Amino acid sequence: MDYSPALMTDMYEYTMLDACLKDGTANRKCVFEVFTRHLPAGRRYGVVAGTGRILDALERFHLDDEDLRFLSDRHVVSPETIKWLEDFHFSGSIKGYREGEMFFPNSPILEIEGTFGECTLLETLVLSILNYDSAVASAASRMVSAAKDRPCMDMGGRRTNEWSAVAAARAAVVGGFKGTANLLAAQMYGLKAIGTAAHCFTLVHDSERQAFESQIAALGKNTTLLVDTYNIEEAVKTAVEVAGPELGGVRIDSGDLALMAQRVRNQLDALGATNTKITVTNDLDEYALAALQTAPVDSYGVGTMLVTGSGAPTCAMVYKLTEREGADGTMQTVAKKSKNKATVPGRKLAYRSYEYNLADVEHVVSGSEDQLAAFTPEEGWKDLLVPFVDHGEIDHQWQGHDAIVNAHEYRAKALAELPIAAQSLMRGDPVIPTEITVL
């Protein structure tokens, strides 16, 4: 489907642009910030994901003749604004937390600087990507911690819509997963693809033995056979008879997974298939994975709970104006004072301090550009903000397959720097506090 990311937005972003072009404020320099006021209930940390997808979308963020005709025909904006949009490309700057980084309440996850006109058009696109991708990556990270050293694979494509399935596969790898069943995600991002056969493959054959013989003939002995269509014990026996002790793996998709994994492991060993791996699936979440830690399971396939953020499908991130150019040309900090929705004025710096090699505080420093330029962090504080776009020029190191691999590795390192309570599945407060300093 050929579409413009510039229309993946709410109508009011274009109506605001139209009004601001008419009153002269559209070209005022502005700074917008993405942050969340709180983590999902009981969560100890979040994982940033989706920045690379934002940069991919930004490269295509312009309107063609058909898009402009749609805006005109629907009277969304005036002819003057249509003219302004004809050659639109984002020319501002973006910095923020890198993918795989931990975030907490009030962390300035993304800062977007440019004119009001161009920055306001990005709001919905940026939030829709960051909110969903970070929710999936945060859930994935909890699942990976619960799974210990056993690999987790994304099998959630059929439990969400077709495009979020692709986004979820990418975010899951950022969050620590090893691969995906989604072929489009594997193609687009160079991810490891996994998959063999479903129960219908067994059912379409005249016998389970014939199904196993067919799969092995097509995929080789190193394939994974699904053994719970009928009777697991009989299926395991048949699988080893057909493939021999070189059988790559078996998958269990129902029942008491811990008990069945133990029985299957003992049976495989008794049959001489001591190297055959056991994969389990079936509505797994981080709590189910934790309960399987002592079971002889080699890998997991996770679906519904992954792509729905394990009960938290959004991170409640918001996109707020924090600084703007005044009528006199000087930059002025601004903030909302709404009840329970107040914001911190000014652009931000973000650091993390450490004690005994463990993170202890998230430091957010707010102020004017000159004030922040003169600010000196304490020794040992880690600067959390990296540049993604400089006056319209995208830093491509944050896009593509290598960026995902780097984010995958960075997440593990960043999580290891948090107090160990971060990996607990018990509900609690953010594992480190956020301290805000307004200069």
TrEMBL record:
Modifications made to the protein after synthesis: Transiently phosphorylated on a His residue during the reaction cycle. Phosphorylation strongly increases the affinity for substrates and increases the rate of nicotinate D-ribonucleotide production. Dephosphorylation regenerates the low-affinity form of the enzyme, leading to product release.
Function per UniProt: Catalyzes the first step in the biosynthesis of NAD from nicotinic acid, the ATP-dependent synthesis of beta-nicotinate D-ribonucleotide from nicotinate and 5-phospho-D-ribose 1-phosphate.
GO biological process: one example: NAD+ biosynthetic process via the salvage pathway
Any one annotated GO CC term: cytosol
Highest taxon of the lineage: Bacteria
Pathway field: Cofactor biosynthesis; NAD(+) biosynthesis; nicotinate D-ribonucleotide from nicotinate: step 1/1
NCBIfam families: NAPRTase_put, PRK09243.1-5, PRK12484.1
Domain Nicotinate/nicotinamide phosphoribosyltransferase: 152-312
GO MF annotation: an example: nicotinate phosphoribosyltransferase activity
Domain named Nicotinate phosphoribosyltransferase N-terminal: residues: 7-131
Protein name (record): Nicotinate phosphoribosyltransferase
Keywords: Glycosyltransferase, Ligase, Phosphoprotein, Pyridine nucleotide biosynthesis, Transferase
Family the entry assigns: Belongs to the NAPRTase family.
EC number: 6.3.4.21
Classification via InterPro entries: Aldolase_TIM (IPR013785), N/Namide_PRibTrfase (IPR041525), NAPRTase_N (IPR040727), Nic_PRibTrfase-Fam (IPR007229), Nic_PRibTrfase_pncB (IPR006405), Nicotinate_pribotase-like_C (IPR036068)
PANTHER family named in the record: NICOTINATE PHOSPHORIBOSYLTRANSFERASE, NICOTINATE PHOSPHORIBOSYLTRANSFERASE PNCB1
Catalytic activity, reaction form: 5-phospho-alpha-D-ribose 1-diphosphate + nicotinate + ATP + H2O = nicotinate beta-D-ribonucleotide + ADP + phosphate + diphosphate
